[in-house]
Amino acid sequence: MRKLLPLTALVALSACGGGGGGGYESASSGQDRNASAEVMHDSAATDASASGRTAAGPNVGVSAAPGVAFDYRYAFRLPSERISAVQEQHAQACEKLGLTRCRIIGFRYRLIRDDEIEAMLAFKLDPAIARQFGKSGADLVDRSEGMLVDAEINGTDAGAAIAQANRTEAELNEELQKVEQQLARGGIPAYERARLQSEAQMLRQQLRSNRAGRTANQESLATTPMAFHYGSGELIPGFDTRSPIRAALEQAWDNLIGGVATLLLILITLLPWAALALFGWWLVRRLRPRWHAIGTGAEAASAGA
């Protein structure tokens, strides 16, 4: 758990830092992609040797498209003792890119059982480096004796939504201008003026709602969300190196120990009652001769009378 302290501080610093920049130059983007790949590669080299497996998942290219906002989600399986280190290395890779390129916006580390851990790390990334950052993160997991078990990349056509919002705003502004021109004329009946004022207010509300949606789509194009989910368990796919015979023997031994424990519990539960029954049997055997003598004497006395 001591390993979590630096990461917790990192999350606090990254979350409280300045907002991500919307613009970027192509040269600096290339440098940032190389930086993220290098820091993840160097961290994995110091932590674990290459395992010789190719479990990083399919190399499907999802390139940045104009007007499309992407959302990346990855799920990894690792040995429980490696999750904390890999999670921290991913965070360090984000930190090295700087707050304008990558920010940590979410963190979770939960011990479910002694051999099962669930963790998560969420980022906001410059769209130009998002795909390379995710690929480098999966490669780091693979080199750390882990594997990519699920990957999901969703795209939203935010550009089309922004264009539609611009057209809608122009139409609303035109309608609002006509209503305001009607209100500016004199001699309008009171009920007609009230209707026009209500219509103008409704148009203004629609304009505010339309601008809020356009702003949200613009922000989705400026930064790309990405989430890394980590999981482990007693049997991790691809890492159970035990032979079937050994696993069967271990299971049989566990069953034997469990059976003995059950029998011992039953014995402890029944032992006081068995001791009480034994004591009653011994008491009856000791008192039976006396009862017999008393009975014989009583019969003799009655016969003599």
Summarize the structure.
Helices cover 63% and strands 16% of the residues. By secondary structure, it is an alpha+beta fold. The protein folds into three domains: 4-157 and 220-231, no CATH class; 159-218; 247-305.
Structural notes for this entry:
The protein is 63% helix and 16% strand. Helix 1 packs parallel to helix 3, helix 2 runs antiparallel to helix 3 and helix 5 runs antiparallel to helix 6. The chain is an alpha+beta fold and 305 residues long. It has 7 helices and 5 strands. The protein has a 5-stranded mixed sheet with strand order 2-3-5-1-4.
Features:
305 residues; alpha+beta; 3 domains; five-stranded mixed β-sheet; 16% strand; elongated; disordered N terminus
Largest sheet strand order: 2-3-5-1-4
The description of the largest β-sheet is: 5 strands, mixed
Percent helix: 55-70%
Morphology: elongated
When the domains are counted, the total is 3
Our Rg estimate from Cα atoms comes to: 38 Å
Structural class label: alpha+beta
How large a portion of the residues is in β-strands, by DSSP E? 15-25%
Q: What separation lies between the terminal Cα atoms? A: 95 Å
Mean pLDDT: 76
| Count of helical stretches | 7
Q: Order of SSEs, N→C?
A: HHEHEEHEHHEH
Number of strands: 5
As residue ranges, the low-confidence spans are 1-33, 43-55, 235-242
Question: What are the SSEs and their pairings?
Answer:
Blueprint: H1 4-16, H2 26-47, E1 69-77, H3 80-97, E2 102-113, E3 116-125, H4 127-143, E4 147-156, H5 158-184, H6 190-222, E5 224-231, H7 244-304
Parallel strand pairs: 1-5
Antiparallel strand pairs: 1-4, 2-3, 3-5
Helix pairs in contact: 1-3, 2-3, 2-4, 5-6
